[in-house]
Amino acid sequence: MSNTDSTELPLWVQERDKVIANDEGVEWRDGKRPDYSHHNQVLQQERKYHHPEGSLEAIAHNLVRTFEMEASHKINPEQWLSVVADKFRMSSNGGKEYTATEAIGHGTYNLFIGKNKHYNPEEETFKSSFETFHTAFPNGFLWEVIEVLSGPPNVTFKWRHWGTFAGNFKEYQPTGETLEIVGMSIARLTEDLKILSVEHYFDNSKFLKNLTAGGCPFHSQK
After folding, report:
1. Position 220 pLDDT exceeds 60
2. DSSP state, residue 60
3. CB count, 10 Å around CB of 45?
4. Residue 75: CB atoms within 10 Å
5. Separation CA 33–CA 73 (nearest Å)
6. pTM of the predicted protein model
7. Backbone phi, then psi, for 28, in 5-degree steps?
8. pLDDT, position 122
9. Inter-residue contact 117 to 153 (CB < 8 Å)
10. 211 near 172, Cβ under 8 Å?
């Protein structure tokens, strides 16, 4: 699949803001459109990869960002444009497969980061997980595609997730460092580039170690 004029592509693999603007009848979580203007600005400043418009990398980048937005902010999965709602499944590191409805209820952070000694998604809600990570990364926990290794219908791609650790993570103080996760995903798509399933693979042990490196305020005062 060669570079394609973005205007010929389905809406859900174009820029995320175009999907947000096309919201007639959409049930938003907070009753209004999400505003990504600040995060978009930070992304343009900090991203490492600038893929040609219409390339496989650009298409994968836009599709996943649209999916993340819809999973976080559209409370009716039937209104998600990026997936086939009744068939969609998502998993991390070979673990449990989650449906679109479960993604709405639990939040993508809770499905993405497995249970560990520093974070237990089973004890978190969508709201608490959202607040925890947005407090730790006030400028956003950003995401971009590094490289697409195979094209549709089974798209395998490498990605990076990163952000500046500038606010507390639970009882741990910020270090001001940029923390990063690099991983790989396999997305199974329909002919019109909607997601049927996506499997994420990554090692978040270093990320969690750095996220808790600042120590808790009580210990830091000793």
Report:
1. no
2. H
3. 9
4. 17
5. 8
6. 0.89
7. -80, 145
8. 87
9. no
10. yes
